[in-house]
Design goal:
CATH topology of the largest domain: Rossmann fold
CATH class of the largest domain: Alpha Beta
Number of domains: 2
Number of strands: 22
Order of helices and strands: EEEHEEEHHHEHEHEEHHEEEEEEEEEEEE
Strand order of the largest sheet: 6-7-8-3-9-10
Strand content: 25-35%
Radius of gyration: 25 Å
Helix content: 10-25%
Structural class: alpha+beta
CATH superfamily of the largest domain: P-loop containing nucleotide triphosphate hydrolases
Bound molecules: adenosine-5'-diphosphate, magnesium ion
Length: 374
């Protein structure tokens, strides 16, 4: 295993700058997820690390070595893609051993390496089969087996589960995490799926617009997002953003109500702001007579839609002209079309600068600070 470092990495295709200056420091043995919308450059970063794409500017290190000019085959990296084509005419055993064969590894050593990897993945009984006699999940395991037999310094996985159905994806996700923890080999895993990122990663790099928007543990990113993009990208249902206009000491909500923000939580330079509040931190208030509490934002709305998901209920309401989603876990009797009173505590809302999306101050998590909700 090895550490990996991206240092001021830039990538241009023709006239287009896709990666605009990326810095990421990955320690030996970490499982890192690159997540971001489609087209943000995740695959390009992996391909540069694998040596399949030139670096336009900056340096990529594996261990202490700058590998910009090191040929792909000399980088000791194993990559699993979304389209992990297996050779149809070869057995699982031959598929898994093929890379070693090309490198001139002896038959005995190949057999031993393949058997060891097959055992790790629980596919020993499939070694004599051809790919067409395997399920999607089994084929995926063979593709990973092909990577494991090489005993690489770094595993690169580019959306390897995208072709599997949702249930299998969840199962394979758990297996990949267990596998990586067992092997302790540095792994970089690319996905556009934030739930996959949150559940798999030791640390996540959120990419957008050619930059790393934030790099940290799932908990840090979820509870302390550096900007509006990260807050909106992680978490389901999506965090609610509420635009508030500033006039002096006061802020105006979309429904015309005004409120103030404690000085310690505001910057003097920011003008208009966005409050960002997770759906689970908004509640439906049953007791209309309860007195106003400082820092509590309250309003009434018609219930536009209710989605009962069993353990939780999503209630779609609005605040002025802004749509708001509320997630309830303790009430399931809210009726569509009825009018409800809603409330959240300002202390639980992040405050972003509307002009640039940067964080002004983080809200506090009212629940267990170690909890991650997807
Ligand atoms: N060989 C290439 N030539 C030109 N543009 C490319 C090439 N490869 C990728 N791109 C562009 O670079 C951007 C990032 O692509 P990619 O890294 O595949 O994104 P992601 O994996 O995050 O979906 C996209 O806009 C894509 O069209
Ligand atoms: Mg990609």
């Amino acid at each position: 295993m090895a550490s990996v470092k991206f240092e001021n990495v830039i990538k241009t295709f023709g006239e287009t700058k896709v990666i605009k200056g990326v810095n990421i420091d990955i320690q030996e043995g970490e499982l890192i997820v690159f997540v971001g919308p489609s087209g943000c450059g995740k695959s390009t970063l992996l391909r540069m690390l694998a040596g399949l794409e030139d670096v336009s500017e900056g340096n990529i290190y594996i261990g202490d070595t700058v590998v910009n000019k090191v040929p792909s085959k000399d980088r000791n990296i194993a990559m699993v893609f979304q389209n992990y084509a297996l050779y149809p005419h070869m057995t699982v055993e031959e598929n898994m051993g093929f890379g070693l064969k090309l490198r001139g590894v002896s038959k005995e050593e190949r057999k031993a390496a393949v058997e060891k990897a097959a055992k790790i993945l629980g596919i020993e009984q499939l070694l004599k089969r051809k790919p067409r006699a395997l399920s999607g999940g089994q084929r995926q395991r063979v593709a990973m087996g092909r990577a494991i037999v090489r005993d690489p310094d770094v595993f690169l996985m580019d959306e390897p589960l995208s072709n599997l159905d949702a249930k299998l994806r969840t199962k394979m996700r758990v297996e990949i995490r267990k596998l990586q923890h067992g092997l302790k080999t540095t792994m970089i895993y690319v996905t556009h799926d934030q739930v996959e990122a949150m559940t798999l990663a030791d640390k996540i790099a959120v990419l957008d617009g050619g930059y790393v928007q934030q790099f940290g543990t799932p908990n840090e990113l979820y509870h302390k997002p550096a900007n509006r993009f990260v807050a909106g990208f992680l978490g389901s249902p999506t965090i609610n953003f509420i635009v508030c206009k500033r006039s002096g000491d006061h802020f105006t909500l979309p429904d015309g109500q005004t409120f103030s923000i404690p000085e310690s939580r505001m910057s003097n330079t920011a003008q208009d702001i966005e409050l960002a509040i997770r759906p689970k931190y908004i509640d439906i208030v049953e007791n209309e007579a309860s007195p106003d509490t400082p820092n509590i934002i309250r309003w009434k709305s018609k219930v536009n839609l209710v989605e009962a998901l069993g353990g939780e209920t999503l209630v779609y309401v609005h605040l002025g002209d802004q749509d708001i989603i509320v997630k309830l876990t303790d009430k399931d009797d809210i009726e569509e079309g009825s009018t409800v009173e809603l409330a959240f505590n300002l202390d639980n809302a992040h405050i972003f600068d509307l002009s640039n999306g940067n964080i002004i101050s983080h809200g506090v998590n009212p629940h267990d600070s170690n909890s991650i909700e997807s």
